[in-house]
Write a structure and sequence with these properties.
alpha/beta; Rossmann fold; 13% strand; binds thymidine-5'-diphosphate
Length: 213
Amino acid sequence: MSAPAGPFVTFEGGEGAGKTTQLRHLAGRLQRAGRPVVTTREPGGTEGAEAIRRLLLEGSGERWSPLAELYLFLAARTDHVERVIRPARACGAFVLCDRFHDSTRVYQGIAGGLGLELVDRLQEPALRGARPDLTILLDIDPAEGLRRRRSDGNASRFDARDLDFHRRVREGFLLLARREPERIHVFDATLPEAVLADEIWRLVSERFAPDRA
Ligand code: TYD
């Protein structure tokens, strides 16, 4: 008999919210609890998708039209879902992903102007049913997030967009969270790192009982 599919948890939020740091905390705790964990990120996670990531994040702000950009994100996702996410879940591993389909829904669909309906329709085949069981949304005022990001020297094409765009991103994520409160949990990203890590661990423990497996 095959193992039950491993839980799929995504981390979402605006720039500089601390997703990567919190993902690492959660991965460490799951490993200490003896659970197999696969950590990955989008855009990226496979050789081909990392090549697409470079096309997406480098260059000038207007390098791609909004629709061309959407297709690039979806091409990267298709490869990532097929080669990493589905196989890892099929083995029963916890899959933790730094950004996933909600980023596309928000950045391209809501803030980028393509519309949620079009993005949801076009990304359906890329997902092939790989929907997150739980999404950790780290919410931060974009002015503060961008300040953090610029001070760590990691700015990309998307960071260069104006504050208005990033405000729409924040509102977009909060809208999705209101629509799917069971899946998307909102955390205050300005809480101290260790406090936030404890809160996320509490939620994951309640949801999946990883320390009782
Ligand atoms: P990254 O450096 O990974 O940002 P962060 O550390 O904030 O996660 O760059 C990813 C950028 O790509 C980020 O600005 C959000 C954007 N993005 C989209 O616009 N659509 C998407 O579907 C994804 C996955 C990311």
